[in-house]
Write a structure and sequence with these properties.
Blueprint lengths: L17 H4 L9 E5 L4 H12 L3 E6 L2 H14 L5 E5 L5 H12 L7 E4 L17 H28 L3 E6 L25 H26 L3 E7 L12 H14 L3 H4 L1 H8 L10 E3 L2 E3 L8 H15 L1
Parallel strand pairs: 1-2, 1-4, 2-3, 4-5, 5-6, 6-7
Antiparallel strand pairs: 7-8
Helix pairs in contact: 4-5, 5-6, 6-10
Length: about 325
């Protein structure tokens, strides 16, 4: 039994599942994109959104795994509307191709869930010569959001329904490098720490959502942007670390959330009526929470925005 299950103001707790937090919510007529949807909380998020009537497009790097995940969902929920499209967040070319294919499909877009991620990898550069965790976890999603935003604005105006952008961050955002974002040393191998670099990418997720919320508000369009901590979850994010794998396998069932609980906050922020109109906030355990001081730094958010814009040009 998950021990820390005291309910917060939302009525939900760390032990609430994605099905619990969306009980009675009707997502019929909504379209969502979920990145990293072929495993872990991405698959569970897709399954529960589909269960609530949402048409979900799974952005997946491995199409075979994506197809398997889709088939499993449709087998369980015959009415599910789920499609898989290839998307490698570490490659700007792949992100551009995915966005172009989606935008030309004629589908609306109500919900964008930036969920995909890699964790604590050894030092590597992406295809675009950018440190891999920053490239995959932040920059790929930054570019994707940028390329899909017009579609979301159009959908929101036409449907008169609030659009929602959800960045899956982590409490690890509190454990970035001392300076927060290493703008001048992003690709510096000598000072690289796999966990601090992960923290940096997750801090970027928070800052991106906050600055996005501010710019959208200035546009006067009904779209929110928020970030969240899904909880410590036993998923294959730990695949890069043998030590972490050992800890997870030994202690996992006692201290970690299961995947159903791990996807809860994402589904809550994406679908729940309680979150309507809430933007630029950070959530944990399906409740409003508070990001770190750096996570709430609006100047750092603006600096990261401009830095990211330059990288995607």
């Amino acid at each position: 039994m998950w021990p820390f299950n005291r309910k917060g103001p939302s009525g939900f707790s760390s032990s609430s599942t994605a099905e619990d937090v969306t009980q009675g919510v009707d997502g019929t007529g909504l379209t969502a994109i979920v990145t990293g949807a072929s495993s872990g909380i991405g698959t569970e998020t897709t399954r529960v959104l589909a269960l609530r009537g949402v048409h979900v497009i799974m952005g997946v790097r491995n199409m075979v795994a994506g197809k398997d995940a889709k088939e499993a969902i449709v087998k369980e929920i015959p009415t599910a509307k789920v499609d898989a499209m290839e998307l490698d967040l570490s490659s700007m070319a792949s992100v551009k191709k995915f966005a172009s294919n989606f935008n030309s499909s004629g589908l609306p877009l109500n919900i964008l869930i930036n969920n995909a991620g890699v964790m604590a990898t050894p030092f590597m550069l992406s295809k675009d010569n950018i440190e891999l965790q920053f490239a995959t976890n932040h920059l790929g999603h930054f570019l994707l959001t940028n390329l899909l935003l017009e579609n979301m604005k159009k959908t929101s105006r036409k449907s008169r329904k609030e659009g929602r952008i959800v960045n899956v961050s982590s409490e690890a955002h509190r454990f970035s490098y001392r300076e927060g974002i290493r703008f001048d040393k992003l690709n510096d191998k000598s000072g690289y720490s796999s966990f601090a670099a992960y923290g940096q990418s997750k801090l970027s997720n928070v800052l991106h959502a906050n600055e996005l919320a501010r710019t959208i508000k200035d546009d006067g369009v009904e779209i929110t942007a928020n970030s969240l901590h899904p909880g410590a979850i036993a998923t294959n994010l730990f695949r890069q670390s043998n030590i972490m794998n050992g800890i997870v396998n030994t202690l996992g069932r006692f201290v970690l959330k299961n995947v159903q609980q791990g996807a809860a906050t994402t589904c809550y922020v994406a679908l729940h009526p309680q979150v309507k109109g809430v933007s630029g906030e950070y959530f944990s355990d399906s409740n409003l929470s508070k990001a770190s001081t750096q996570g709430r730094d609006s100047e750092l958010a603006k600096k990261l925005w401009d830095f990211s814009m330059n990288l995607i040009k």
